[in-house]
Design a protein that fits this description.
This protein has 300 residues and is of the alpha+beta class. The strands form four sheets. A six-stranded mixed beta sheet has the order 1-2-20-10-6-7. A five-stranded antiparallel beta sheet has the order 3-4-5-9-8, with no helix packed on it. Strands 12, 13, 14, 15 and 18 form a five-stranded antiparallel beta sheet that branches. The radius of gyration is 21 Å and the shape is globular. The two termini are 39 Å apart. The N terminus is likely disordered.
């Protein structure tokens, strides 16, 4: 009888393990995954990513997408792509307009010929180390999982104070550089000058984002997606500075599957009315939905 009970218990354990594996199948840190060349339903779109290639120190992908049904979907201008892999630093770009600086390639940049269709090439880079690129991901900074937002003050000249909470990630500021709209850099002593904070301005915040990969993986699965880091306020491209266009105001935290820790160093830009952008800026961690295409059939 004891042997029968033990056998039944073992069967239950195996069945539960298989069920858990099945529920997590096809996901990486809560993001849907597929092989490059396949299609995924994400952000209210059916998105196909194909032909990942390298040219002129850029990574190029061909995207074809159509709105899935009549439900809510991300606006074309809010769809953002990024490189996946063991990269030295994150590289992302908006799908629309991401090829504006790439002038020497014979490509058709991504366009939205109609509000429910996207087609063309997305440019990501520069990225010279081709061996580290294992795929691409997509998300929208405006797609937010309810109840997952944690916001921190990020005022000049301190930035974000060291923070570690229930998100499982630690944020640490590595640099803070503030500028007026004309590109003149502001020093901390400008805080005593009432004339320094007039008009528009922008701030570049260097961040180090760390955590345990296993905890972040488990939390992302429960949440339904990975976290993104958002800096606010911001302006639509081209913004106040080329640096703001390069770094952006958002970042998806999607570590390479080979890493046992989250360790990301990146810069984000806040911009707009100078007091809001420098003295009342915020950096937030927010859960979001994402999709990932890799060169391999599976990452996990």
């Amino acid at each position: 009888m004891r042997r029968i009970i033990a056998l039944l218990a073992a069967i239950v354990v195996v069945a539960c393990a298989c069920s858990s594996d099945d529920n997590d199948a096809g996901r990486h840190y809560g993001a849907q995954t597929a092989t490059i060349g396949e299609s995924l339903a994400a952000l209210g779109w059916n998105i196909s990513v194909a032909n990942l290639r390298f040219d002129a120190d850029h990574v190029l992908i061909d995207v074809d997408a159509a709105v899935a049904g009549d439900g809510e979907h991300a606006k074309p201008e809010d769809i953002r792509f990024g490189l996946y892999g063991a990269l030295a630093h994150p590289i992302e770009a908006n799908g629309l307009g991401g090829c504006s600086d790439v002038t020497d390639l014979g490509i058709q940049p991504l366009t939205a010929p109609t509000p429910d269709r996207l087609t063309g090439t997305v440019c990501l880079g520069p990225q010279r180390d081709q061996s580290q690129v294992r795929g691409v991901y997509v998300y929208s900074p405006r797609d937010r999982i309810p109840g997952t937002t944690v916001a921190y003050a990020a005022a000049f000249p301190v930035g974000v104070a060291p923070a570690n909470d229930d998100t499982g990630l630690t944020l640490r500021t590595t640099s803070v550089d503030a500028f007026s709209a004309d590109g003149a850099q502001l020093k901390p002593t400008a805080l005593g000058d009432p004339q320094a904070f007039t008009g528009n301005g922008y701030m570049l915040i260097g961040l180090e984002i760390t955590g345990l990969a296993q905890r972040y993986r488990d939390d992302s699965a429960r949440r339904g997606g990975p976290l993104m880091v958002l800096a606010a306020p911001t302006l639509p491209p081209p913004g106040l500075s080329r640096a703001c266009s390069t770094y952006g105001a958002s970042l998806l935290v999607l570590p390479d599957a080979s890493r046992d820790a989250v360790n990301v160093r990146a810069s984000l830009c806040t911009q707009g009315e100078i007091n809001e952008a420098l003295l009342y800026a915020t950096v937030s961690l927010v859960g979001t939905h994402a999709a990932l295409w890799t060169k391999e059939a599976s990452d996990e």
